[in-house]
TrEMBL record:
Pfam families: Aldo_ket_red
Similarity comment: Belongs to the shaker potassium channel beta subunit family.
Gene3D superfamilies for the chain: NADP-dependent oxidoreductase domain
Protein name, UniProt field: Aldo/keto reductase
PANTHER family cross-referenced by the UniProt entry: NAD(P)-LINKED OXIDOREDUCTASE SUPERFAMILY PROTEIN, NADH-SPECIFIC METHYLGLYOXAL REDUCTASE-RELATED
A GO MF label: oxidoreductase activity
Organism: Hymenobacter polaris
UniProt keywords, alphabetically: NADP, Oxidoreductase
A GO CC term attached to the entry: cytosol
Domain NADP-dependent oxidoreductase per the UniProt entry, residue ranges: 18-320
Amino acid sequence: MPLTNFRTLGRSGLIVNPLALGTMTFGTPRWGSPDDVCEAIFNAYVDAGGNFVDTSDIYAGGHSEELLGRFVAQRQLRDQVVLATKFTWNASRGNPNAGGSGRKNIYRALEGSLRRLQTDYVDVYWLHAWDVVTPAEELLQTFGDLVRAGKIRYFGLSDVPAWFMTQVAVLAQAHGVPGPIAVQPEYSLTERSIEREHVPAARALGLGVVPWSPLAGGFLAGKYARQDADKGSGEGRLSGPSPLGDTKFTDQNWRVLDVLRTVAGQLDRPLPQVALAWVAAQPGVSSILLGASKVAQLRANLAALEIKLTAEQLRALDQVSTLELVHPYQIATPEVNRSIFGGHAVRGWQ
Ligand SMILES: NC(=O)c1ccc[n+]([C@@H]2O[C@H](COP(=O)([O-])OP(=O)(O)OC[C@H]3O[C@@H](n4cnc5c(N)ncnc54)[C@H](OP(=O)(O)O)[C@@H]3O)[C@@H](O)[C@H]2O)c1
């Protein structure tokens, strides 16, 4: 499957690649990349046929947006690229209206992003994270006004509970106004919780799933050794404090890595490619956000689309990383299905 195996982003007319370029590394100190490397990564992605680029007003304090805006402008690619950015995180300590999903902040944030990106519209404007307090109705009205004003083409939701995503999408459908076309959650072999609620809801509501940290911040690249991982040794983002304040070095994740290593050995492919191929094979996934600190990583990861995992390999990776069956999903088993339908195994329409 090549990068130019285009698909729509959710139930919309926006066309994107199966792999998007994430730019959280662009200009970020310690684990990010200097400007010239960012430019090489951007060029490698678009020269390979990539059209979907993702940033945020918070990455490198806005410098990621500045770099992306400059690279797009230099190559006059504004019409070709699907440019996505995000708002939520506070830009001005002490000012509660300089963060969150309220109308006042969204207008403030978007003006800043447009300036840094050197453009007058964003293709996909993401809510970066749930702010817990802003009503779904206000958010939807603000997004709709921005679509009608031509400042954004589409919008999506990142890091929100499934109930909130569903509320926003259903309100939009019921009122016949622009609704979200995609959801952007963390998703990888080490973080599968969205399979319980977000993925089924997204599929039912026509939202594309755009996973972030598909390699668990580099953990699934297999570059960390179990015996000294927690000592902060070695090279890579996870060698220092996690940007998200969590740890990937858990017993469960090391077990996942062992099975990933076995499957990668069978395929004679690098671990990160196999981890990405697993994400690409999951239901509901529209486009995976690639992260890279070096151009060689980006090139290697693009080759993940060449891999087709066998049913047995998918089963092995699924088994080691599978979610605990919690209420009410313990009834969604083949045994209970047969019991409900009088001894027959009945499949749904999807
Ligand atoms: N919405 C959100 O809340 C949110 C949160 C996080 C990210 N994102 C988006 O998702 C994108 C991807 O996230 P991510 O950067 O965390 O993705 P990731 O794929 O989990 O991690 C990428 C990191 O893994 C390492 N790596 C990647 N390919 C490699 C390879 N072939 N060999 C060895 N190491 C490799 C590199 O780090 P080192 O070289 O430092 O090891 C790279 O920076 C971001 O750029 C951003 O656009 C969104």
